[in-house]
Amino acid sequence: MNFDCHQCTVCQLALLLLFVAGASTAQAAYQDQVLADSPVAYWRFEDASSSDGSTALNSGTTAATNDGTYQGSTALSSDTPGTIGGTSGDFTGSNARVELGTTLRSALSGSSAITAELWFNASSLPADGSVALLFNSFLNETGTGLSVALQNSAGSGSADTVLRVAGRSTGTDSFTTGPISYASTDTWTHFVGVLDFANDQIKLYVNGSSAGTIGVSFGSSTYAPSGATSLIDSIGKQNNASGFTNAYNGLIDELAVYGGELSSTRVAAHYAAATAVVPEPASIVALSFGAMVLVRRRRG
Ligand SMILES: [Ca+2]
Ligand SMILES: [Ca+2]
To answer: Which-ligand-closest: CA of 154?
Structure first.
C-alpha cells in the first residue's frame, strides 16, 4: 500500500486551520452581534491589564469618552460565558470596581428607552438586607438613570434574592424596579433589562428569553438626567454619597448599554451567538484521525 505522507501533513494542517478559524469565528460572533446594535458603551474586559488605574476599554459608539478605569484590585479571569472566550472581569466582593466617570448619562439623555445587557457569574449572593451592584449609571440617592443589581431582602436567607434592573426617567420619579427571583451562584447568566420610558414598561430577559414585562410609571417619556453630578458611574460597586458601596462578588463580562430598546429578536440572537456549538479539540483530533484513515483506505 502506498501512502503519501505529504498529503497527510496537508490534511492535518488544513484541519488545524479549520479548527483555529472556527474557534476565532465563535469568539467574534457574539461581539459582532452586539456591535451590530450600536451600543453606546460596551466593556468587554479583554484588556491587557486590570491593575489599579489601567483602562477598561469601551468598544461602544462613544469610544474613549466612556472608557473605564480599573480600581480596587479587580482581576481578569479566563472563565467566560458560553463560546465567547477571552477574559471577564473578576470582582472580589471587597473593593473591586471599574470607575466610569460621568459622561454616559449625557450620551443616553433623550432616549425613549435604555437597555443594559451583561453576562454575570456570582461567586456569592449578597447577605440578607444587602445589594450587590453589577452596573450603575447615575442611579443613586436622587439620581436618574439605571442600575443592574442582585438584592437580598432582610430575612429568609438567600431565598428572596432578586436580580433587578432599576431606573428613574427624571428626578421626580420614584425608584422603579423590575425584579425577578434569582439565587444562583457559579452559573453564567445572560441578562438584559430594558427601561422603556415611552411605554411605561420594564422588560427583562434571561438567557435569551423573556423573563417578564412589568408595567410601571415613568414621569418622562424620554431620559432626562438629573442628580448629584459628582457621583460617577461604575461596574461591580456603587458610588453614592457615602462613597463606594454595595460590592458584588463574582464575574462580569461583555457589558453593553444601548440608547434604545434591544428587541426580543436581537436579545435571542445575541444569546444564540454565545452558545453556538464549537467542536472540542478532542473531536478535531478524532476527525483528523478519521480523515487520515479515509485517505489511507482510498489510496490503498
Ligand atoms: Ca470578555
Ligand atoms: Ca433574604
So the answer is: 2
Cell numbers for 25, please give them: 469565528
Sequence letter at residue 137: S
Rounded Cα distance between 2 and 296, Å, is 8
Q: What is the DSSP letter of 261?
A: P
Q: Over its length of 300 residues, how does the chain's per-residue pLDDT go in tens digits?
A: 444 444 555 545 444 444 444 444 444 599 999 999 999 999 999 999 999 999 999 999 999 999 999 999 999 999 999 999 999 999 997 999 999 999 999 999 999 999 999 999 999 999 999 999 999 999 999 999 999 999 999 999 999 999 999 999 999 999 999 999 999 999 999 999 999 999 999 999 999 999 999 999 999 999 999 999 999 999 999 999 999 999 999 999 999 999 999 999 999 999 999 998 655 555 545 545 544 444 455 554
Ligand nearest to the CA of 126: 2
pTM of the model: 0.85
User: Could you tell me what percentage of the chain is helix, strand and coil, using 3-state DSSP and rounding each to the nearest 5?
Assistant: 25, 35, 40
CA distance 197 to 92: 34
Q: Residue 71: CB partners within 8 Å, gap ≥ 6? A: 52, 53, 95, 96, 97, 98, 99
List domains and CATH numbers for the chain. Answer: 38-279 (2.60.120.200)
Scan for cell 466617570, then name that residue.
101
Q: Distance from the CA of 182 to the center of ligand 2, in angstroms?
A: 12
Distance 155 CA to ligand 2 centre (A): 4
Tell me if residue 106 falls in helix, strand or coil: helix
